Amino acid sequence: MSSIDVLSVTKLSPFYEAHLRQHFALHDRLHESDPAAFAKIAPQIRAIAASGESKVSAELMAKLPALEIISVFGVGYDGIDTQAAKARGVMVTHTPNVLNDDVADLAMGLMLAAARQLPAADRYVKDGKWPNGPMPLARKVSGARLGIVGMGRIGQAIAARAQAFGMHIAYTARSAKADIAHRYVATPTALAAESDYLVVITPGGAGTRKLINAAVLAALGTKGILVNVARGSVVDEAALIEALQNGVIGGAGLDVFENEPNVPEALRQMPHVVLAPHIGSATTNTRQAMGDLAFNNMHHHFSGKAVLTPVPECAPKG
Ligand code: NAP
Question: What is 262-318 written as a DSSP string?
Answer without folding.
Answer: B--HHHHH-TTEEE-SS-TT-SHHHHHHHHHHHHHHHHHHHTTSPPS-B-GGGSPP-
